[in-house]
Write a structure and sequence with these properties.
Layout lengths: L1 H36 L23 H12 L2 E6 L2 E6 L2 H10 L11 H7 L9 H17 L8 H19 L5 E2 L1 H16 L9 H16 L4 H5 L13 H24 L9 H14 L9 H32 L1 H15 L13 H14 L8 E2 L4 E3 L2 E3 L4 E4 L1 H5 L42 H18 E4 L12 E3 L3 E3 L3 E6 L43
Parallel strand pairs: 2-7
Antiparallel strand pairs: 1-2, 3-11, 4-7, 5-6, 8-11, 9-10
């Protein structure tokens, strides 16, 4: 009996050894096959078996890619698990690919999560004729709603929402509070007004619930890169990679949008088109009358398109405005200069988008905030639409492409002392606002952000109106104010922080103002109470992406 047991154990050991050897052999063959498949790609750093370069790019992938670029040049390849990604690390490479070779680089990558959720619908990740058709319609509707005319309906919608937002700030005067979801509600309401034809109260619990779902997904989406590389990880317990939450959150928001679309269908009147959904329904019915079976104008497409418009407009604009407040609190001298320029050029008049040409320093401050915040450091990933010859390499069809926007905005050869906050780098010798070609916060080429004009209008009007009417400070007495180190998700967002908003006193003279502390600042138009602390003196900017 003992001999039989011994022989069985020996056979089992040999079987385990053989299985292990077979597994190693199969893995090696797979890795070799993957390497052979992309042998024509630009060279890059050597990665680990199976994982590729994933661990080398944690935690701040955009920073790590910039460092890799110093060794591997303007164009190189990394691997997210088995997935090759071509990185464009210089402005010249990005422009050559996206502008001069735009058709070949205008695709979107086929990733597991996006394919599962969107199925090729929407606008942001759509491709081919579907994308062209939806983009043409969307931009046409934007123009109809005045995004191309500064005295139009669109600016009026923003001003209407600003009135509500400013009213809320006044109610919170001298009380420390987190502006995050108040700002998000205000910005989202502008999108809601255009798309749904209505706004939501800032206290609407259902509306806030969906905003928080979207915010959570933005913060944690970086985790899903592992599921995109290795879809089998979605089966692990605990939802470590945010797979289940992403799917559930998307479906909940989609159902919410679906209910609003249904309401529009029930009351639809082709002679009374009042918003984006009405216009889309009209287009759908026109396609039905043509018996166009290949049309991209469908109800599921409309739901996903609205999702993209929210993500691409509301969330990103909210994040940028939160960064703007963080930088103004950390740099009260700059905040005061912006106010002085506004006061001298437009006084107490309501800011309009046309006022930009009279406020070059204010424009420069907004540009510097966007440069340093880098909320979309790698933009939205592109993909090749066919096999593309590029700089001596052949990039296969469907290859993912990252434009490293962060590296363009932090290049020391372009921006002296790039880590420092200095709006004057956007002011020319004549005192006018200008932007170097490397400043591309909205991307370039065929896939440039379709809502760029709307975003610029919202940023300018919100920022100028806030600074015109309030002094923004930190409630942390003696502290430095908000952290300037961002959190990497879909975008780079600031950590949550409290602010104090104190109303300015129009036309107050210097003798009317008594500062309760020593400072190199002058002419603050209002004072904070005991809870709200005005930072003293000039605070040096900290490097955000160590």
């Amino acid at each position: 009996m003992a001999i039989a047991v011994y022989l069985l154990e020996r056979c089992t050991e040999k079987l385990n050894v053989h299985l292990t050897a077979l597994l190693i052999l199969v893995t090696s063959i797979l890795i070799y096959a993957l390497r052979r498949r992309d042998f024509s790609l630009p060279p890059g750093p050597t990665g680990l078996p199976i994982l590729g370069n994933i661990l080398q790019m944690i935690p701040d992938v955009h920073v790590k890619l910039s460092e890799m670029g110093k060794k591997y040049g303007d164009v190189f390849t990394v691997h997210l698990g088995p997935v090759p990604v071509v990185v464009l690390n210089s402005y010249e490479a990005i422009r050559e690919a996206f502008v001069h070779r735009g058709s070949g680089f205008s695709g979107r990558p086929q990733t597991f999560m996006v394919d599962l959720i969107k199925e090729g619908r929407g606008l942001g990740m759509a491709q081919g004729n579907h994308w062209k058709e939806q983009r043409k319609f969307t931009l046409g509707m934007f123009r109809q709603y005045g995004f191309q005319n500064w005295d139009s309906t669109m600016e009026s919608k923003i001003h209407d929402e600003l009135e509500n937002f400013i009213g809320e700030l006044q109610l919170k005067e001298n009380q420390p509070f987190d502006v995050h979801f108040l700002m998000g509600s205000a910005v989202s309401n502008i999108t809601c007004n255009v798309i749904f034809g209505r706004r939501f109260e800032y206290t609407d619990s259902e509306f806030l619930y969906y905003l928080k779902l979207i915010d959570d997904d933005f913060k944690h989406y970086a985790r899903t890169v592992f599921v995109n590389a290795f879809p089998c990880l979605r089966h692990l317990p605990g939802d470590l990679f945010w797979y289940t939450k992403t799917i559930n959150h998307f479906q909940k928001v989609k159902d919410f949008v679906g209910r609003i679309i249904t309401q529009h269908i029930e009351r639809y009147d082709e002679n009374n088109i009042t918003d984006f959904i009405d216009a889309y329904i009209k287009q759908m019915r026109q396609e039905e009358q043509k018996n166009n079976s290949d049309t991209s104008f469908t109800l599921p497409q409309l739901q996903d398109l609205i999702w993209d418009l929210f993500l691409g407009g509301s969330e990103t604009t909210t994040t940028t405005l939160r960064w703007a407040l963080a930088y103004m609190i950390r740099h009260p001298d700059v905040q005061e200069k912006v106010y002085r320029e506004i006061s001298m050029n437009i006084g107490t008049e309501q800011p309009s988008f046309e006022h930009r040409r009279h406020l070059p320093y204010t424009e420069a401050v907004l540009a510097e905030i966007q440069r340093l915040a880098n909320i979309f450091p790698l933009a939205v990933p592109h993909a090749t639409t066919d096999d593309v010859e590029f700089r001596g390499y052949v990039i296969p069809k469907g290859t993912m492409v990252f434009p490293n926007i962060y590296n363009q905005h932090m290049d020391e050869d372009v921006w002296e002392n790039a880590q420092e906050f200095n709006p004057m780098r956007f002011i020319d010798g004549d005192g006018q606002y200008y932007t170097p070609k490397q400043y591309i916060p909205f991307g370039i080429g065929k896939r440039v952000c379709p809502g760029e004009t709307m975003a610029r209008m919202q940023l300018f009007l919100f920022f100028t109106t806030m600074i015109q009417q309030f002094v923004f400070t930190s409630p942390n007495r003696g502290g430095d104010g908000p952290s300037l180190k961002g959190h990497m998700g879909i975008t780079i967002s600031p950590e949550d922080f409290d602010i104090c908003a104190t109303r300015r006193v129009p036309n107050a003279s210097q003798s009317d103002i008594k500062l309760p502390f020593d400072t190199d600042m002058t002419n603050f138009d209002a004072l904070a109470d005991d809870e709200c602390y005005l930072p003293v003196g000039k605070i040096e900017s900290e490097a955000r992406h160590d």
